[in-house]
Amino acid sequence: MWFTSDNAGPVAPEVFEAMSRANEIYSSSYGADPIMDRVRDRIREVFEAPDAAVYLVATGTAANSLALASMVQPWQTVYCHRHAHIQEDECGAPEFFTGGSKLVLLDGKDAKIDLASFQQAVANTGQVGVHNVQKGALSITTATENGAVYTVEEITALCDAAKTNDIPVHLDGARFANALVRLGCTPAEMTWKAGVETVSFGGTKNGLMGVEAVILFNPDRAWEFELRRKRGGHLISKHRYLSAQMEAYLTDDLWLKLAKRSNEIADKLSKGILALPGATLLHPTDANIVFAGWRRSGHRAVQKAGAHYYFWPFDQMLEGDDDEILTARLVCNWATTDEDVDNFLRIIAE
Amino acid sequence: MWFTSDNAGPVAPEVFEAMSRANEIYSSSYGADPIMDRVRDRIREVFEAPDAAVYLVATGTAANSLALASMVQPWQTVYCHRHAHIQEDECGAPEFFTGGSKLVLLDGKDAKIDLASFQQAVANTGQVGVHNVQKGALSITTATENGAVYTVEEITALCDAAKTNDIPVHLDGARFANALVRLGCTPAEMTWKAGVETVSFGGTKNGLMGVEAVILFNPDRAWEFELRRKRGGHLISKHRYLSAQMEAYLTDDLWLKLAKRSNEIADKLSKGILALPGATLLHPTDANIVFAGWRRSGHRAVQKAGAHYYFWPFDQMLEGDDDEILTARLVCNWATTDEDVDNFLRIIAE
Amino acid sequence: MWFTSDNAGPVAPEVFEAMSRANEIYSSSYGADPIMDRVRDRIREVFEAPDAAVYLVATGTAANSLALASMVQPWQTVYCHRHAHIQEDECGAPEFFTGGSKLVLLDGKDAKIDLASFQQAVANTGQVGVHNVQKGALSITTATENGAVYTVEEITALCDAAKTNDIPVHLDGARFANALVRLGCTPAEMTWKAGVETVSFGGTKNGLMGVEAVILFNPDRAWEFELRRKRGGHLISKHRYLSAQMEAYLTDDLWLKLAKRSNEIADKLSKGILALPGATLLHPTDANIVFAGWRRSGHRAVQKAGAHYYFWPFDQMLEGDDDEILTARLVCNWATTDEDVDNFLRIIAE
Amino acid sequence: MWFTSDNAGPVAPEVFEAMSRANEIYSSSYGADPIMDRVRDRIREVFEAPDAAVYLVATGTAANSLALASMVQPWQTVYCHRHAHIQEDECGAPEFFTGGSKLVLLDGKDAKIDLASFQQAVANTGQVGVHNVQKGALSITTATENGAVYTVEEITALCDAAKTNDIPVHLDGARFANALVRLGCTPAEMTWKAGVETVSFGGTKNGLMGVEAVILFNPDRAWEFELRRKRGGHLISKHRYLSAQMEAYLTDDLWLKLAKRSNEIADKLSKGILALPGATLLHPTDANIVFAGWRRSGHRAVQKAGAHYYFWPFDQMLEGDDDEILTARLVCNWATTDEDVDNFLRIIAE
Question: Does this model's pTM top 0.95?
Answer without folding.
Answer: yes
